[in-house]
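Ligand: 2-acetamido-2-deoxy-beta-D-glucopyranose. Inputs:
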Amino acid sequence: MIAPRSSKLFVFLLLFFFSVTLAFGYSEGSGGYEEEEEGRYGGGGEEQVFLLPKSRQVMRSEAGEFRVVSGFNVGKKRSGIDSQPPMHIGFINMEPKSLFVPQYLDSSLIIFVRRGKAKIGWIYKDGLVEKNLKIGDVYRIPAGSTFYIVNTGEGQILQMICSIDTSESLGTGAFQSFFIGGGLSPMSILAGFDERTLTTAFNVSSSQLESIFTRQQEGPFVFVNGTHDSSKWASFMQLKHQERPYDIAEHDEVDKTDEQDSWTWRKLMNFVVGEKAPKRSVKSTDAYNLYDRKPDFVNKYGSSLALTDKDYAPLAHSDIGVYHVNLTAGAMMAPHVNPRATEYGVVLMGSGSVQVVYPNGTSAMNTVVNEGDVFWVPRYFPFSQIASRHGPFEFFGFTTSAGNNHPQFLIGASSILRTMNGPELATAFGVSQDRFTKLINAQNESAILPSAPAAPPRQGRRHKHEQEQEQEHEQEHEHHKQTDPEGELIELW
Ligand SMILES: *[C@@H]1O[C@H](CO)[C@@H](O)[C@H](O)[C@H]1NC(C)=O
Ligand SMILES: *[C@@H]1O[C@H](CO)[C@@H](O)[C@H](O)[C@H]1NC(C)=O
Ligand SMILES: *[C@@H]1O[C@H](CO)[C@@H](O)[C@H](O)[C@H]1NC(C)=O
Ligand SMILES: *[C@@H]1O[C@H](CO)[C@@H](O)[C@H](O)[C@H]1NC(C)=O
Ligand SMILES: *[C@@H]1O[C@H](CO)[C@@H](O)[C@H](O)[C@H]1NC(C)=O
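Predicted complex:
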C-alpha cells in the first residue's frame, strides 16, 4: 500500500508544477483563448477568494459555543469585488440541557436546525412566542428581538447554522449581543445602569438586586441541570403559550409557576420590554422544515430546493432566501449564475469542489470544500458545484434575496445557451451553427448533471490540466482515492 501511494505522491507533485505553469490555458481547436502566462496568481496556485475563512469562536462557555464565519468582503481587497452588505454564517452548538441565555442581537438570524431539538422563545409584538424546532427547521429571529434557546433533545447535542444578516447592525464586529439575562458573565445590559436606577426601577433593595446580578458566571451558554430544583428542567421543556389555541392561553396556569418563581429571566425581560408578563399568546408564523418539503428540482443525480418568502414569510423581512442541494457522487450543479443574489453555502455532508469564474472569464476559484466549509459567490458570478466521486455532497445556504432568485443555467438542457441558440450565438463563438448546436445539445440533462463518463485520452491540454488539478486537490485533502483515469469533471466549450 505504501509504495504505490508515495509514487503517486511524486506524480502529484510533478503534476502540481505542471498545472501551475499551464494554469487557465484553453485547449486548442475550441476557438478559445490561447494559453495564459503563468503566475497570474503569483504562481502560488489557486486563490481561494470565495472560500470563507474557518469559523472563529465568538462566544463560548462550558455548555456551548457560537462560532462565526465572517462574510466581510473577504474577496474585496484582492479582487476588487464589492459584495452586498455582508452576511455572516453562525454555528451554534449546545450541550444537552443547556440554555443560550436571553439576549437580543443587532442582526437578524435565520436559524437552521442541523441536529437535535430546540425550543426557541422570543418576544414578538409584546408577547412571548415559543417554538419547538426539529432537524431541518428554518426559523427567523428578527434583529432586536430578545430570544433564548433551550436544547430540548434528550442527551443530544444541538447544532444550528444561521445566517447573520448585518444590514441593520451597528457595524461592530460580526454582530453584537445584548444580554438581558446575565450576571458576572455574561454581563447583563441591565448591569450598565446605576444601582439607584435599578433599585428604583425594579422596586427592590440593592441586596436583592445584587443577588441577581452576581449569580450568573457560566457564560452565555448555561446548563439547566445544575439547579437543585428538579422540576425546573421540566418547565424548560414546556412551551408556555404557543401551540395552544388563543383563548385557552388567555388564562393559563403555566404562567403561575413563573410568577411564584420571583426572579425569572422572563421578569427581567419584561422589565426591558416594559410590559407585564404577557398573558396571551401571539400569533406568529411557524417554523418551516427544509426536509419535509419536496425539492423544486430532482433527477437521478440530485435534488435542489429554494425556500422563498412565499414559502416562509419571515424571510421577506430579512430579504434572505434559503436553499438546499443534494448531489449524488460525481454529480455537478451545472454552471449557473444568480442574477439577483449573492449566495452563501455551507457544506453539510461529503465533499466536492466549487468553481467560481470572474466576469472576464478567468477562474476565480476552483477548490475542494469539505463538511463545515463555507463558500460564497457574488451576484452575477458564474459558478458550479461538483460532488466528489466518493459520495453524495450535500450543502445548503442562504441567498441575499428572499424572492425567487431564478438561477440561470449556462450549460445543460435548460440553459440559456439552449434557449438562445441561433446564428447570433454561434457567430459569437465563431463556429458554424451546426457545430454549435451539436455541442450544446450533447447534454440531455438539466441543472444537475451526471458525472463525466470515462473519457478517451483525446483531450487537449485543458482537460489534462483539469484532471491533474482535481487529483491534486484530492491529494491535498487526503482523500486517498483510487486512481481515476478519467478525472474529467467539466467540459466547457
Ligand atoms: C480578471 O479579473 C480578475 C478580477 O477582477 C483579475 O484579478 C484578473 O487579473 C483578470 N484577468 C484578466 C486576464 O483580465
Ligand atoms: C414597591 O414595593 C412595595 C412593597 O415592597 C410596595 O408597597 C410598593 O407599592 C411598590 N411600589 C411600586 C411602584 O410598585
Ligand atoms: C449537566 O449536564 C452536563 C452534560 O450533560 C454535564 O457536563 C454537567 O456536569 C451537568 N451539570 C450538573 C451540575 O449536573
Ligand atoms: C442526499 O442524498 C443521499 C443519497 O444521494 C441521501 O442518502 C441523503 O439522505 C440525502 N440527504 C437529504 C437531506 O436529502
Ligand atoms: C440524449 O439525446 C440523444 C440525442 O437526442 C439520444 O440519442 C440519447 O439517447 C439521449 N440520452 C439520454 C440518456 O437520454
